[in-house]
Amino acid sequence: MVAAASLPERHHPFDPVAPPLEETATSEAESPGELSPEQLATVQLDPRKLGVVLSSTIVGTSGGAALINGRSYQLGNTVKADYHGQPIAFTLVEIHDDKVILSRGKQTYEVRLPERDSSGRMEVTVLDGD
Questions:
Q1: Minimal CB count within 10 Å: which of 62, 71, 91, 113?
Q2: Is 121 exposed, middle or buried (0-12, 13-18, 19+ CB in 10 A)?
């Protein structure tokens, strides 16, 4: 018998995924200071750089669902992010098998599933019953 602790770590498809540190780190030079709501509405902000991470999608005839930052969203739902302490809202407008499309104002953004080391196929491991 093999102890569970010795098995390779498995990733559950609905576990939240932390964004890579280099994508979320900002320098003092990038800090916007205080922006008015009107100014903030016109700034183009990439949701991936704000820490928005897509973990999984379910696509179906009714539109599907997406797991973003550990929460389940459906088409039309608002995905919230934070920009230097100010809330930013994106609308989930499309769900695909490997990505979602978010919109904010007239701009759309594509957020893809992170690349995986495995093929994505279910892998079966047979353990000895010794």
A1: 62
A2: exposed
The beta-strand segments (E) located in 13-85 are 54-58, 65-68, 71-73, 78-83
Task: With beta carbons less than 8 A apart as the criterion, state whether 104 and 88 touch.
Answer: yes
Cα angle for residues 63, 67, 70 (degrees, 5° grid): 155
Give the C-alpha separation, 89 to 72, whole Å.
16
Q: How many other CB atoms are found less than 10 A from the CB of residue 110? A: 14
Which residue, 124, 100, 103, is CA-closest to 114?
A: 100
pLDDT band with cut points at 50, 70 and 90 for residue 60: confident
